[in-house]
Amino acid sequence: MTPQEFGLLLISMAASILGQFCLKAGALKLGKVTVSNLVGHVLSIMFTPELVAGLVCYALGAITYILLLTRVKLSVAGPAAALVYVFSVLIGYFVFHEAIPGNRIVGMGLIVCGVVLVAWQR
């Protein structure tokens, strides 16, 4: 992967991670969705700044990922993008104070090992 391709990957991942953070923050603002408040909550998405920001970040992440895919094999870019899941769990822990059970830690380790194995070139 060239430095430009790696940069596209980092931008795509950062935008996706920031999007996840914003969507969670906005979802906490909305509160729990039930059958009785579903329509109101769906309409509120358009007026909740964190949710709009999260969707914009996801769009930016998707655009940069598409640009990356024009230059890099999917078999490398796809697994590398899976690191977003690891960072999402870490944001959940450090920012939103969510617990990380042992099986989730093992899963995150397997994701990181898998990305290293896929990206490794001799």
Features:
about 120 residues, about 0% strand, about 75% helix, mainly alpha
Task: Please describe what this structure looks like.
There is one protein chain. The protein is an all-alpha fold. It has one domain (about 5-120). Helices cover about 75% and strands about 0% of the residues. It is built from six helices and no strands. The chain has helices spanning about 5-30, 40-45, 50-70, 75-80, 85-95, 100-120. The protein is globular and about 55 Å long. The model has no long low-confidence stretch (mean pLDDT about 90).
Question: Summed up, what is this model?
Answer:
This protein is an all-alpha fold. The chain has helices spanning 3-30, 38-44, 49-69, 74-81, 83-94, 102-119. The protein is built from six helices and no strands.
